Amino acid sequence: MADDVLMLNISSDPFKFPTKNNQRSFLSAEKYSWKGKKKESVKRKAVFEPQENSAFKQRKINQTGQQHTHKQKLQSPRSPSQRNNSRDTEETGYQRENKAAQSPSKVKTFPKKAPEEHKDHGRPFIKTSSLFKNNPEIPDVHSRAVTRVNENVFTNYTFEELNLHPHLVATLEKVLKVTSMTSVQKQSIPVLMFGKDAVIRSQTGSGKTLAYAIPVVQSLQAIQPKVKRSDGPLAVIIVPTRELALQTFQMFQNLLKPFIWIVPGVLMGGEKKKSEKSRLRKGINVLISTPGRLVDHIKNTLSIVFSAVRWLILDEADRTLDLGFEKDLTVILNALNSTGIARQNVLLSATLNEGLSRLASISMKDPATIHVSEGSKGTTQTRPQAAAQALSDSYSVPERLKQHVVVVPSKLHLVCLASFILAKCKFECGQKLIVFMSSCDAVEFLLTLFTKVLCAKSDTSPANLFNLYRLHGNMKQEARTEVFQEFSQCQTGILLCTDVAARGLDLAQVTWIVQYNPPISVEEYVHRVGRTARIGAQGSSLLFLTPSETAFVDVLANHNISLSEMKMIAILSTLMRDSRFKGRGKWDSKVMLLTPCSNPEK
Ligand SMILES: Nc1ncnc2c1ncn2[C@@H]1O[C@H](COP(=O)(O)OP(=O)(O)OP(=O)(O)O)[C@@H](O)[C@H]1O
User: Fold this and answer.
1) pTM of the predicted model as reported, rounded to 2 decimal places
2) What residues are in contact with ligand 1 under a 6 Å CB criterion?
3) With CB atoms 3.0 to 4.6 Å apart as the test, which of 57, 162, 297, 514 could cross-link to 435 if both were Cys?
4) How far is the CA of 177 from the centre of ligand 1 (A)?
């Protein structure tokens, strides 16, 4: 890793990013003069013999008259996410340099030019890091005005008004600390307690889990004679990820505290099948599972029987329908349907849409469609095929979520993210960030790099600046669970992750969601940003786009989602405030003068 670190002169005249009107490159080919002749020859060798000084080697840049080097270790040559980012097709100077370094036979050597050839009064030409030059044009992003879809999260109705078991109400108040219902709970709980199937859509962090969990617990505790473990599953809850399965299991553990005869259990990939089999043999009444693992047990575990199932809940139903899961879901539905027992079916998500109709038609009877947003208050009874049409394509995001976008050429993505992290975690207090990226490799790469470069103890900060966590699908389940629990409980820190953390996770006090790579769909965007600003809280999000990806802003606007632009230069200016990275040249004062405000939002 050490060899991969470039030294950048980020302090030198950083206000020349090419824009439509200004094609001059940022830090590009700045001409620096040298005073000492001896030094000059050393430096010129470094500059003009690229075979010896490839992009993978550290660079030192000298400034006019200052006779010192800047050592800013910020950028590694090429992150995996950049390598994988096929959307960004522009070949930057930086990438060209990498190619040259990889194939020595094609390395282009630059002819040595005599100092007097250069215009700058005979002073030698010094080539700076290519990171900040040859940038593509950065277009302005205009997010068109859209009508936001609003949802009121809270109502004035209390759980006591629902005629629930008093112990359940007491548990809600004392254990979960909830007294009044959210809008989705107010609309869904009575419908489900009445025995209807339902398709429920409400914004992220609005309390959908309790919207179905309360009716499930209320109905199971009322069964006479009392439920026994040997009855097997009475409620089956399918969720798309292991962490969400754990979180849902914990919620049921809490809700079922007064009803100890009803046993919840979780099955998920990565856990030991043998111990799961033995728990299934003993009996699980509320069964929470990821689809793949449940299918595995349906095929291989004799003791799993569904003859008593009264509830089937598909949380994040649109995700569960995605390619890969659909086959599993068919196996699960066939196994449940073969028993012939009538059951209630519930589909939930913040982004249920037209893909739902297939599932609704195979699994539901006259479902009620509950769509909590302005203009569609209350519930609508529809036929299964019509259920999807009742749900529009306009997604509601939390009211107190501030959404931003920044356009960054791909070669500057990494340094820009590093700068943003510093801005939030070093120069502001109490920030908890989730950074989404497209691959497990990218998560690993950035974790290693940031741990070394950003978190390291320094003279000025003897303690680690902040905690970094990672979560992705290639980790062992034990490590995933540990990170999930730790990050849930921590006050500040940064979670680098893939979309395994995008759906359903309720991680307390997250202040910022950063999408380092854009999501694969509008729906995934909604779920990613939904990890903050939950249950009426404030939160912010930042979407990184390359110049060629800016059309995604319009795609979001088609779904009534609007973003405000943050300027890359404002984010990068944070580097000037960090003694480890800022330069010592005359430009520092200029940078600080031009960027008086450290908060790029302002
Ligand atoms: N009535 C309530 N009053 C206060 N807090 C509540 C209430 N109901 C749920 N919560 C809390 O709100 C948070 C979000 O709930 P939940 O995870 O169920 O949201 P969600 O709608 O399922 O979100 P997502 O779409 O992201 O899965 C949880 O911490 C939960 O404990």
Assistant:
1) 0.76
2) 176, 178, 181-182, 185, 204-210, 350, 504, 506, 530, 534-535
3) 514
4) 12
